[in-house]
Amino acid sequence: MKIAITSTGKNPDSLVDPRFGRCAYFAIVDSDTMEFKFVMNPALSRPGGAGINAAQFLIDEGVEVVVSGNVGPNAEQALRAGGVKIVTGVSGTLREVLEKIKKGEI
Questions:
Q1: Once rounded to an integer, what is the mean pLDDT over residues 35-60?
Q2: To the nearest whole number, what is the mean pLDDT of the chain?
C-alpha cells in the first residue's frame, strides 16, 4: 500500500508537516517494503486550491492513505472522492511515524 506523509524536509528526521496542501514535501512510502521517496509538493506555490491540487497529485500517484497534521475540508473531500483514507493529528519525525506504521499503530 502507498502511504503519503506530509513532510517539512527530505530525510527521515524531518518533521511531519502539519499542513497538507501547503506542505513542502510528501514522503511516499510503500508499506510492504518500507521504502520511500520524497517528492516536492507541486501545489505548494499555487495561489489557490493547493489542497485540491495536492490531493489530485497523490491520487494520480496511487496513494491509498494520507498521513498529516491536518487536512482542510476541500482537500479532504477530494481525497475521499479518490478513495484515499486520511489520518490526521499526526506529529513527530517521519522516522517515528514510520515506526508506528510498522507496528500497525497508524
A1: 93
A2: 93
